[in-house]
């Protein structure tokens, strides 16, 4: 099912002016990420060339599989970004097996919360919760949530970058995947599987950094483990202390004490409204 008001063909892509945005180390591993613009609207072209870098290959395949699954649904998820899957074409003298084209839209968390009303902040958080909840209701976890993965298309929150995504309860690919230490739940440092609750923890870190306007700091993987497993403190600025119960439920170090699902976070946020 094609949800887009736009589609590009193979000839168009080769005629468009594009800028390469792939981080330098990944170029040698076959990853390609281009940005281009048509009629004032930006787009991303993403594909993986053949290489020996298994993590990048597996990541791209996982994201492709997720989009194929979502696009095949009778009712498209609201959080799904506008995406086109284009197969078997030549691009700049390179044979591309399959590529993703995504509409470029701004970050949901661009604004400093100190410049927003309390109601506006609550509105933004609800958008984030709704997007992640819909993903979980599909039977998937994102498994690598970051602030940059929450976008705003019109009035709708979109999620992107599903390279680590997996079905809820899936463990077969667990050892082959990575997570970003900044957002890792304590149990992941002990080798446990990713779950709905590890998504909730990552969401808590995203909100903590946004509301405090401060990035967590650590210099090594071991330091990140100490931070998340022992030393993380929830200290919000005075205007945002009403959100402390929300973050405490999302960021409980013990999985048994952390909320089980997004609905629990929503209920907590509703009390902030009341």
Distance between the termini: 41 Å
What is the chain-wise order of helices and strands? HEHEEHEEHEEEEHHHH
Structural class: alpha+beta
Name of the CATH class of the largest domain: Mainly Alpha
Model regions low in confidence, pLDDT < 50 over at least 5 residues = none
Biggest sheet statistics: 5 strands, antiparallel
What does the radius of gyration come to?
19 Å
Keywords:
single chain; 274 residues; alpha+beta; Phosphorylase Kinase, domain 1; Transferase(Phosphotransferase), domain 1; two-stranded antiparallel ribbon; 9 strands; globular
Walk me through this protein's architecture.
35% of the residues lie in helices and 18% in strands. 30% of the residues are buried. Strands 1-2-3-5-4 form a five-stranded antiparallel β-sheet. The chain has a two-stranded antiparallel ribbon with strand order 6-9. A two-stranded antiparallel sheet has the order 7-8. The protein has 274 residues and is an alpha+beta fold. Helix 4 packs antiparallel against helix 8, helix 5 packs antiparallel against helix 7 and helix 7 runs antiparallel to helix 8. Strand 4 and strand 5 form a beta hairpin.
